[in-house]
Amino acid sequence: MYYRSSNIAARIFDRQISTPAPGTSVHHARRFYENLVPSYTVYEVECPDHSFRKFTDDGQYLISFSRNHQELIVYRPRWLSFSCNDDDCDKHDLPSKARRFDSFFTQLYCVSLASCNELICKDFFLYMDSNQFGLFATSTAQIHDAPAVGGAVQGVPSIEKITFHLLRLEDGEILDRKVFSNDFVNLTHNMGVFLYDDLLAIVSLRYQTIHILQIRDSGNLVHVRAIGEFCREDDELFLNSNAQDISSSDKNKQHQSTENHVENQMHQGQPHMGNSFLSGIKQRLLSFIFQGLWNEESDDTLRMQRLRMKFYFHFQDYVDLIIWKVQFLDRHHLLIKFGSVDGGVSRNADHHPAFVAVYNMDTTEIVSFYQNSADELYLLFEKFCDHFHVTSRNSMYMNFVSSHSNNIHALEQLRSIKDKASNSSQFVKKMLASLPFSCQSLSPSPYFDQSLFRFDDKLISATDRHRQSTDHPIKFILRNYPHSLKFKIKPGAHYFQAVCILNIKMTR
Amino acid sequence: MDSILGNLPSFNPQNFSQIKPCSDPYISTRMTPSTYVPTHCTLPPPDQVIKTELGNILPRHIYCNVLEQVKPNEVAAGSVLPEHEFKQLQVST
């Protein structure tokens, strides 16, 4: 077996004379991060009083919001450099300019996004790195006990105005806006919005519609289709052309509610057909379940028994399902999570029953339908976790995020959790609760690469979510020889103003 | 010893002269690799084009799973096959 030195100079020489195995050049290059680790922390740096959100994945911008949540401030990271020629550089202190915030970041601009009664949703930000566009959201206050008018779902809160702002991050120019009125989109941690390449899916929980928009290179947000009340583009035309026949039978029922609904209906651009029909997506779902059960039995009597037990008995439960969350699987398929109204609006929906469906946008058909404890879905999740995390074709670095499908150490962790689980069904439910995945929720940092470093994923991980701060330092230990502690991060309130600097250490 | 490495430049010209051929006839120092002879034509089809599939492999597997479930349960008569009926605009009278 060929011995590879962990010394960075030796690795650079080795890179000059040897070629990595086919298909491993990126993995080979990422191993240099074993040598390039954070090794210095600067404390008590005076920072502007902003709410810092995150760095863009390409490292070009630092996104922050003003404390009053009305302005967006974007910084360009400068990455201060420092060199030392002495024999023992570790004992040298950094220069005084290293303690200044503006040594590391240059403010590019400050843009006001929210008007008087609106606030920027600080948990929401999506980045389109091909064009360096950023998507932000502002909203007015939530109304929790809003009446269910105009086809709205009872129990889902309402927000008077939700605005999505598309900005060119290079200069802060607002390119386009999309407004949703008297609606509800779950903006926390990007849950209600999914960006894939140039396609944007926005889930209106209140009106149970998946709005598909396209972000053009010019910066325009173009509405492509709306999936919910209708599935095909001409469904509305077809139903309207038959409205005369329908309205004559439901005339009495509709007349009472028409006057109240007109204004809200036009706002949404979807004429509400009263309570005569279930929505298009719901009908697709019910048809799929019915067909599946019908085809399972050849005997008519057994078939009817099966339908009675598994379809008609639960019919109202299926009808009451609402769309919780959506993600793209590719440009043609959506992964849709269905559940109860209570689960859709609660913070923790793990205890609520849920279903997952794959929907083909082109054929408008449900391809498959699983319960959230289905072993079949779990097998797909275990084997193809990477492919659930769909990445833009322009973001090659996202293809190297560790998961249990591409990393033996992550797989061992998963199997360890599986072996310790007392109830297999509960384990599957817990694992599948993360589906559909939230958009841009994983950090591509090589320091989270489980083939390079070992760390406690209860304290820190690539997933962008809040964790409880701990007094213990978070250690990053080398996976490969010599399995040494490379660096540690010390969280805690008194370190909130710390800035880490990279330092190249000459290791053996 | 007549080594195939004998005439190549080396740090010490005596390096490979120390190798002694093994006298055991069962252990040969010159191993001739066996040649694989295919019994069928291994040439690719003339119109073959190899390219990376841009689509996500996950929907493909989902469709494969669906087909596997549908095939054994298919019944010639009585199965509800998804037929796409084209909508016809009704002319009101």
Automatic annotation (TrEMBL), chain B:
GO terms for cellular component: Cul4-RING E3 ubiquitin ligase complex. It holds the Pfam family DDA1. One of its GO terms (biological process) is positive regulation of proteasomal ubiquitin-dependent protein catabolic process. Signal peptide: none annotated. InterPro entries: DDA1-like, DDA1_dom. Residues 3-63 form the DET1- and DDB1-associated protein domain. Coiled coil: none annotated. Belongs to the DDA1 family. This is Uncharacterized protein LOC105851812 isoform X2. It comes from Cicer arietinum (Chickpea). The gene is LOC105851812.
